[in-house]
Amino acid sequence: MENSKCLEDLPDELLLEIYTYLSSYDILYSFGYLNWRIQCIIGEFCSQLDFSHTSLNQFQYMCSSSFLFFLPQRLTKLTLSNGCAPGQIEIFQENICNSYLKEKLPFLTSISLLDFENNNITLLSQLLYLEELFISFTSYEKIKSSTETLLQFYLFTKENNFRKITLDIEEGVHMKPQIKPNIQLQDLNIHLSTVDDLFVLFTIVPNINRLFFSIVDDVLPTFVPQIQFSMDNFPKFLKILFMHTEHKQAVPFKTFFIPLVYNIPSIEHLSFGLKTSDPDYADATLWTDLINSMPLLPTVIFGLEIQITITLLDRFVVYTHDDLKKAVFDLFVQYLPSASLSIYTNQETLYIDTVPYRFDRDTGYTTSPEALRALKTNPKVAQQPSKHIIGLNMSGEYLPITANDYINIICSFPGIKYINIESINVKHELKEENSVALPVSLKLKYIYSLAYMRSTKCQVNRTLFDYLFYGHQRLTTLTMMYGDLIYLLRTASPPLDGSHITNLTCWSSGADGTVQLNHLNYLITAFPHIEYLSFGLTSSKLIKKKQVEIIEKLITSFERLRVFRLYSCRGTFILTRMLMDDQNMRSKWLSRVHASGSVLIVEPKHLRLWKCESQITYF
Q: 317 in the Ramachandran plot: left (φ > 0), alpha (ψ -120 to 50) or beta?
């Protein structure tokens, strides 16, 4: 063809467009050695590299001395992860950071370290010149006290250039007083263990401008802000504050929330996602008093999940959920008429949300299908599209709810990347009783992960599931309860086609029954292209019978399998005890499961396997 061109003839702009569809490894491996012009394009314009999905062999090749020359000269953002490549962060440290990192990557300003482990902590000493740092700790090992001490030393005491830090530790950080504060830090996103850790944090980051914190434990605070904490210790430049709690007891309204906000008069944007059992949060008169006392506070974003208790019902002198919803609504209309709120109830929860759901950075949101029946103080404003909502969490609380209600809520958030639905009890509509459930299309352009957790009696509703499971080009990750998934696979007609799923996680508790060998064929048939497979159990007894055979079949039956994880909250596995102290037996076992040369990490309660590249079949 006369108009055809070879790759070298393509303009720079088109090459850069091609790069947007490729992984960082593919760009460097496929184009790095072609010619000098393309090398220069990569070096000049590929400013962000993400190796979080790169295999161990691929990353080791990337770190070889011959390949380091092609690292983009103007690299500004780098992402590393131990998840797909065990020890990736350590390999990076040994090969790239063995000399002064700033000389090799002078334009690097931001780094993300995923599945961070205790032995990676010394890397931080090489990163102090960066402006942005994101650390997410692995859930497979507990953070050591020494690691936590060094972490806080490097981030908050040691002289550094950090302006923005995100610290994601599942169990939360126990803040320790530091010798001197970090006066550089302006933007912090952190999981704290208890509310008391917040006050220690305030003494460490006095110049913080944006603070996003989450309280992990439900321990009530021992600090009383207006009595035990000096006004001088509160941040004086804090303008944007977001707080989140994972349990209902952490933040009392009158004795903690109000004094906290009141003593930071610089706040201009207050946003919160709070789970609470304190009925004071539902009282509009208290909110009015607080907001009126904060003259610089033009923006308050409500995200309240208030437990419906007898105390709450008595507070508003009502007996039913509908009456409670109406009473709370009327009070907010009377005292905060300018607020745009959506107020609705589930079986156990009163929700008070600010609408529309528009934020200035990516966030997840928790709601309920009952939001369709919400009372809205400003219905027209509530119809505006959401912004920066990338994740949606919904709990049905096992109330009979139609599939259409779930779908209608989801359609209000077209930009979401993940959905977590739990406590599901789908009410069958008459028109569905005699129909055959077939894959249908609900176009969610960006969704890549679906968590469908716990249906009533493990009986998954095929209509709702198919809406969420099929027709989304980027959906590759599925998380389900084991009992739900096996029920679905055994009863599905037509059979479930999960060929687009590459990452599958199954959770199992007593209600799911035991993991059985004869169930595995359903998984193998429905999900032929699995690359990442994880099983999480509340007890090792759930996989006690034929345990070794089950684990070996899971590892050997998926030709594309790259990573296998098995985890138990209680009890140890027979197989892990066999492999832990016998290197010879470990080698024989790896050979038996066709994983010779692979990386195997074994602890009493968990087993993790990263298969060698030569043992993986690609087709």
A: left
Q: Are residues 619 and 517 in the same domain?
A: yes
Whether residue 524 sits in one domain with residue 613: yes
For 272, phi and psi rounded to 5 degrees? Answer: -150, 150
555: closest CA among 582, 579, 539? 579
The residues near 2 (Cβ < 8 Å, ≥ 6 apart) are none
DSSP code, position 153: I
What number of CA atoms fall less than 13 Å from residue 615's CA on the CB side? 23
Task: Answer whether residue 600 is part of any domain.
Answer: yes
| Structural domain count of the chain | 2
Nearest residue to 255 (alpha-carbon basis) of 226, 234, 290? 226
For 293-332, give one letter per residue: b (16+ CB within 10 A) or e. Answer: ebeebeebbbbbbbbbeeebbebbebeebeebbebbbebb
Instruction: Examine residue 284 and state whether it is found in any structural domain, yes or no.
Output: no
Task: For residue 492, give the amino acid letter.
Answer: A
Closest listed residue to residue 294, CA positions, set 259, 329, 328, 330: 259
Domain edge (last residue) among 451, 475, 499:
475
CB 475 within 8 Å of CB 500: yes
Model pLDDT, residue 68: 58
Report d(CA 564, CA 293) in Å as an integer. 55
Question: pLDDT value at position 432?
Answer: 47
Domain containing residue 552: 513-619
598 vs 552: CA distance, rounded Å: 14
Element (H, E) at 482: helix 482-491
Burial of 540 (0-12, 13-18, 19+ CB in 10 A): buried
Do residues 143 and 170 lie in contact, with contact meaning Cβ atoms separated by under 8 Å? Answer: no
Residue type, 216: V
Tokens at 231, concatenated? 């006004």
Query: Is residue 601 within 8 Å of residue 86, measured between CB atoms?
Result: yes
How many angstroms separate the CA atoms of 171 and 174, rounded?
9
* Residue 79 near residue 51 (C-beta atoms within 8 A): yes
Let me know: does 580 contact 546? Beta carbons within 8 Å: no
461 and 529: one domain?
no
Nearest Cα to Cα of residue 56 among 30, 82, 27: 82
The rounded distance, in Å, linking the Cα atoms of 448 and 416 is 9
Which residues in the chain show pLDDT less than 70? 1-5, 32-33, 43-45, 65-73, 97-100, 220-231, 250, 429-441, 614-619
- Other CB atoms within 10 A of residue 445 CB: 11
Closest among 354, 440, 453, 444 to 396, alpha carbons compared: 453
Question: Do 446 and 416 meet the contact criterion of CB atoms below 8 Å apart?
Answer: yes
Q: Do 518 and 618 belong to one domain?
A: yes
Distance between CA atoms of 62 and 56, rounded to whole angstroms? Answer: 10
Q: How far is CA 230 from CA 128, 164, 199, 227, 233, in A?
A: 31, 26, 10, 8, 5
Identify the helix (H) or strand (E) that includes residue 49. strand 48-50
In a domain, 548, yes or no: yes
Residues 468 and 544 in one domain: no
Euclidean distance between CA atoms 69 and 96, whole angstroms: 11
pLDDT of residue 437: 45
Distance CA 115, CA 482 (A): 25
Q: How far apart are CA 213 and CA 190, in angstroms?
A: 5
Q: Which residue intervals of 440-481 are DSSP H helices?
A: 462-469
Q: Is residue 329 part of a domain?
A: no
Show the tokens assigned to 5: 């061109």
